[in-house]
Amino acid sequence: MLAHEQFDSGSSVLDLRIATSNSRPVAGHVLILVHGLPRAMGMGRQAAGLLPELATHLATESGWTVATGTLSGVGASQGTFSATKWRQDLGRIITRMTQDEQRISLAGFGFGGALALACAAEDERVRGVATFAAPAHLEPWCGSPEELRAAVQVAGVVADEKELLGAEELYRDVLAIDPLGAIAKIPPRRLLVGHGTEDQEVPVSDARDLVAAADGRAELRLIQGAGHQLRADPRMVATLLGWLDRHR
How far is 154 from 132, CA to CA, in rounded Å? Predict the structure, then answer.
């Protein structure tokens, strides 16, 4: 079953989908899927398009409750992107999903993986994090401040140009996510780092750097021949389901 609701996050209204299983319910376990930052023309409205279907599949196969929300400026959610705003949005989703003291885990894709690490580093409610194709080094991932701001505009995650930070401020705000510093704070909570060996956007060496920053206390899963878009890769799904099953 897939439920739909909307709720406020500051000046934004977020769209949230919550998938549950009637056949294999596992009480108290919640996984929150976190989408990435789209970089292509007009992809802001479509960036999280596959995640409700993935949430339903994961819930059915694992028995976990699986939630996926679209952060400010993405999909049907209102607002304008900034890294700080997205951290606040994800915090609001975590709060919504812990109303009955559920045990929360996060699974993030691309920049969403880096965001999940940053939130978990400061929030003990999060018991585990899985990342897929997440950048460890945000400077090369961003490009120049001007390139980053232009990519945000082109992707369409901007409701109001007046709300969009200037190039230098936006750049510093994204770099403050600091994936390597964040992942170092998470153990002994559980960690999974997944990456495609043929990822052309984020090099596979970033996955190894994340594991090293966690002092080796993270599972590393390299998906042979896979590129950057892992959300629909059945091997990624199998990897994530196995991780969930081991942490019932």
Answer: 24
